[in-house]
């Protein structure tokens, strides 16, 4: 069976050539490429570029996000190595920084993304690592 390759730009208008991390925040699907955040809205058929996107990651975030997962308050958690930041996407600003191994000791080292098991609650998440998203 031959694997089909889809180019990001074919699905996401004006999108990046590659993606380091993805996450959903409210009605936005976010693609993170190094220090750039691309935002898209989805109408059930196509993705369209959201207003005021792409934008640069706030200068207080000193890492390139390699993983992300949403919080129920609309913010997202951006991660790289042992560093993480909670990030308010609409304000384009971080609100909290810490060490992943101290704050989230059970997250896998190769984490790429996560989604809440119940969208109304942030009590439990399905987490995806490199082996489950490739």
Would you write up a description of this structure?
The protein has 134 residues and is mainly β. It has one domain (8-133): Hemopexin-like domain (Hemopexin), CATH 2.110.10.10. 9% of the residues lie in helices and 46% in strands. It has three helices and eleven strands, in the order H-E-E-E-E-E-E-E-E-E-H-E-E-H. The strands form three sheets. Strands 1, 2, 3, 4 and 5 form a five-stranded antiparallel sheet that branches. It has a four-stranded antiparallel sheet with strand order 6-7-8-9. A two-stranded antiparallel ribbon has the order 10-11. Strand 6 and strand 7 form a beta hairpin. The longest helix is centred in the N-terminal third of the chain and has 4 residues, at 8-11. The two termini are 16 Å apart. The mean pLDDT is 86.
How are the secondary structure elements laid out?
Elements: H1 8-11, E1 21-25, E2 28-33, E3 36-42, E4 47-49, E5 55-56, E6 67-70, E7 76-80, E8 83-88, E9 93-99, H2 100-103, E10 111-118, E11 121-129, H3 130-133
Antiparallel strand pairs: 1-2, 2-3, 3-4, 3-5, 6-7, 7-8, 8-9, 10-11
State the gist of this model.
The protein has 134 residues and is mainly β.
Summary tags:
single chain; 134 residues; mainly beta; Hemopexin; five-stranded antiparallel β-sheet; four-stranded antiparallel β-sheet; 3 helices
């Amino acid at each position: 069976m031959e694997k089909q390759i889809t180019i990001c730009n074919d699905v996401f208008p004006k999108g990046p050539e590659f993606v380091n991390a993805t996450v959903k925040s409210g009605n936005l699907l976010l693609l993170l490429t190094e220090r750039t955040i691309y935002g898209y809205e989805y109408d059930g058929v196509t993705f369209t570029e959201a207003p005021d996107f792409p934008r640069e990651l706030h200068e207080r975030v000193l890492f390139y996000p390699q993983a992300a997962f949403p919080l129920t308050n609309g913010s997202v958690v951006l991660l790289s190595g042992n560093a993480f930041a909670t990030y308010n996407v609409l304000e384009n600003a971080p609100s909290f920084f810490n060490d992943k191994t101290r704050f989230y000791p059970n997250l896998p080292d190769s984490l790429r993304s996560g989604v809440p098991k119940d969208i109304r609650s942030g009590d439990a998440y399905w987490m995806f690592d490199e082996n489950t998203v490739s």
